[in-house]
Amino acid sequence: MPELQHHDPVYVLDLGEGENRFSPDWLESVHTALDTVTEGAAPAALVTVGGGKFYSNGLDLEWLTANGEKAGQYVTDVQELFARVLTLPVPTVAALNGHAFGAGAMLAMAHDFRVMREDRGYFCFPEADINIPFTPGMAALIQAKLTPSAAIASMTTGRRFGGPDARELGLVDVVAAESKLLDHAGDVVRGLAGKDRGTLGAIKSTMFAAAVTALRSPA
């Protein structure tokens, strides 16, 4: 399960050692961690990272198959996490230690910045290959962060992008060696940690108003 550490002023949220799929309990744990990050007024920034092979493989399809009657609420809850991270009133960066697929890649997109391991791991929106269309909210989130050409190249192909190709397309901002991944991610946001939270949250809410509205509309 997710675990939060504090290296003043940077919080590091370790998403877990497995595939880090979005089970209801996992979602709740992430929200609890975000509550800690955003409470108070001290300078703060957030890095999220996974362990092992995965950053996150996204939706918990096994849970969803067993709880199909709860699918609507589940998608609503997933999209609420995206909207919250997208507008979090502190600087955020996803440190992609491994594979980021589907909703896991969307979670990374919801961060302000992305740093990806250069030698292993794929960034992928596989929806076109697994016959699961993007919801309007998910599409709006991705398109809010990418150029139109990058959105087409990533959303309609199902292509798996390694670190250098992901950087070239604009899916991630920086690539780094595995041993330096967290250091690079921390460097991206540490100097921004003192920004006024009210102002930063308002700026993000305005920048991404259309995506947030779509994410918080009924799924």
Overview in brief:
47% of the residues lie in helices and 19% in strands. It is built from eleven helices and twelve strands.
Task: Please tell me about this protein's structure.
With 219 residues, the chain is an alpha/beta fold. The chain is built from eleven helices and twelve strands. A six-stranded mixed sheet has the order 1-2-4-7-9-12, with helices on both faces. It has a four-stranded mixed sheet with strand order 5-8-10-11. Strand 1 (3-7) and strand 2 form a beta hairpin. The longest helix is centred in the middle third of the chain and has 16 residues, at 71-86. The two termini are 26 Å apart. The mean pLDDT is 97.
- Give the neighbour order of strands across the main sheet: 1-2-4-7-9-12
SS summary, helix count? 11
**Sheet bearing the most strands, described?**
6 strands, mixed
Globally, the shape reads globular
Q: What's the order of the H and E elements?
A: EEEHEEEHHEEHEEHHHEHEHHH
Q: Helicity, in percent?
A: 40-55%
Task: Flag low-confidence runs.
Answer: none
Number of strands: 12
Overall residue-averaged pLDDT value: 97
Residue share in β-strands = 15-25%
- Rg measurement, Å: 16 Å
What labels describe this entry?
alpha/beta
Write the topology of this structure.
Elements: E1 3-7, E2 10-14, E3 21-22, H1 24-38, E4 45-49, E5 54-56, E6 58-59, H2 61-66, H3 71-86, E7 92-96, E8 99-101, H4 103-110, E9 113-117, E10 123-124, H5 127-130, H6 136-145, H7 148-155, E11 160-161, H8 163-169, E12 174-176, H9 181-190, H10 197-207, H11 209-215
Parallel strand pairs: 2-4, 3-6, 4-7, 5-8, 7-9, 8-10, 9-12
Antiparallel strand pairs: 1-2, 10-11
Helix pairs in contact: 1-3, 3-4, 4-6, 6-11
